[in-house]
Structure formats: structure tokens, C-alpha cells
Design brief:
This protein is mainly beta. The protein is built from three helices and 13 strands; from the N terminus they run ββββαβββββαβαβββ. Strands 1, 2, 4, 5, 6, 9, 10, 11 and 13 form a nine-stranded antiparallel β-sheet that branches. A two-stranded antiparallel ribbon has the order 3-12. The protein has a two-stranded antiparallel sheet with strand order 7-8.
Length: 244
């Protein structure tokens, strides 16, 4: 009996939609021989923002409707941002396929009137338990209170300035330094970040329903004036990078 060798040719499947070297990436947590995945950018939507100046602790004036957000003031003002997350983002955070993202804020030019100064700040995941409020009537978060619904309805932060471990994560998601050179041409500040298992867990721990809040906390320098959503509807954005 004569044996005839049979050669099997195996082709990669997937057709025109199969990942190519230009649009594919290896999941950063995967072993060296892991699959190649296609990255998608998943945008979130900014729904509320405010800032917390130490000088306004407990007073009737709040900053929920301000057209600028101030981070700095020698460490005594920080910014709160709240985003609505899509189901794809929530699934990616839960499943570990979300590998990073980008937060963008926008410097105001010196027209508020405001004068920007070199400033460094960290970005943290924060509790969703605060309200934006308005400008008067003790409504909205401030340095001392995370919820303000009137002069007799105030809920304090665990630690003033949203500094307590229940107020925000103690592990920075991103850090950024705005230099004098950056201030020469005010515009978008783009802060990419990577998510490992620990940071994904920090984000998931702060998600309430489909919302995620972030806190911008100064670490050195002067004051930065950023556009709020009332000042510019497109000045602040958050997107996640999903690898599946």
C-alpha cells in the first residue's frame, strides 16, 4: 500500500475586518503569546463640574454655574468632574479589556479676568456623592460640604477639600505639569493614562450606576483657569481605550 502525504493549508479567518498591524494591539496584561486585539476609543459624556475654593467653606456662594474651573490657588482649590459612562465602558472596566484612556481639559486665556500660572496636579477617581448646584443659596458642593441643598441641608466631606479616602481614591490616575511654555499658547491639556488591574479596581469602586467622578488636585504651583461646561461645551472630555 502506498501512503500519499496530505498537506493541510490553514488560513487566518476574519475577512476584511480582521485586525491588521496598523489597528491592532496586544492587551498589556496578556502573556507574550496572547491574542492580538483591535482597539476602540469609547467616549464618556461630561454631565457636571464644579470647583472647591477653600475660601468659600460653608458660605452661600457655590461654583456650580461658574464658566471657569480653578485648580491650584497654592493648593487650596480643586476641580470635580462627573461623566456618564456608556455600557461598553462599564463592560470593559468590569471585564478588564479597558486598558487606558485620555482626559482632556482646556486652559482659558487670560480673559476671565484670570491669570494662569505654572501648576502641577494629580487626577483621582472620586466619589459620585456630590452635587453641582448653582451659585447661590448654599446649593452645590464646596470645600467643606459635598452636598448642598440649602443652608440647612448640608452633607460634609469625610475630610475638607474632598481629601478623605471615602471622598476620592488615594492612587493617582494621572499627573500633569503645566509649564510657562504651555501657558504661552493656552489650549487643550491632554492627559493619557494606563489602567492596570489596581487602577481599574479603583475606578470601578467609585462608579455609581453609570457615572464616574474625577478630582483634579493641585500638588504645586499657582492657579490654572480651565473652561467649565458652562464656559465651553466641548472643553472637557474623557475617553477610554478598549482592547478586545
Amino acid at each position: 500500500m502506498r501512503y500519499v502525504p496530505i498537506v493541510l493549508l490553514v488560513a487566518a479567518c476574519g475577512g476584511d475586518d480582521a485586525p491588521t498591524p496598523s489597528d491592532a494591539a496586544v492587551h498589556p496584561d496578556a502573556p507574550p503569546d496572547a491574542y492580538v486585539c483591535t482597539e476602540r476609543e469609547l467616549p464618556a459624556m461630561l454631565v457636571e463640574d464644579t470647583f472647591l475654593p477653600e475660601a468659600l467653606c460653608g458660605g452661600p456662594m457655590r461654583e456650580g454655574e461658574a464658566t471657569s474651573l480653578e485648580v491650584g490657588e497654592s493648593g487650596s482649590s480643586r476641580v470635580l468632574l462627573r461623566f456618564e459612562l456608556t455600557q461598553d465602558i462599564l463592560d470593559g472596566l468590569a471585564n478588564g479589556t479597558t486598558t487606558g484612556g485620555t482626559l482632556t481639559v482646556t486652559l482659558r486665556p487670560d480673559d476671565c479676568p484670570c491669570t494662569n500660572a505654572p501648576t502641577s496636579f494629580d487626577v483621582f477617581a472620586a466619589t459620585d456623592g456630590w452635587n453641582e448646584g448653582t451659585t447661590t443659596g448654599s446649593t452645590g458642593a464646596d470645600w467643606c460640604f459635598r452636598i448642598g441643598l440649602g443652608s440647612n441641608l448640608q452633607t460634609p466631606w469625610e475630610q475638607s477639600g474632598a481629601n478623605g479616602p471615602n471622598d476620592r481614591s488615594q492612587i493617582a490616575l494621572a499627573s500633569h505639569e503645566v509649564t510657562s511654555a504651555d501657558l504661552a499658547t493656552p489650549g487643550a491639556i491632554t492627559m493619557p493614562f494606563e489602567l492596570d488591574t489596581s487602577l481599574r479596581g479603583e475606578l470601578m469602586a467609585r462608579v455609581a450606576e453609570s457615572r464616574l467622578a474625577l478630582a483634579l488636585v493641585p500638588t504645586a504651583g499657582g492657579t490654572l483657569f480651565l473652561y467649565s461646561r458652562e464656559g465651553s461645551a466641548t472643553a472637557t472630555s474623557l475617553s477610554f481605550r478598549d482592547c478586545r
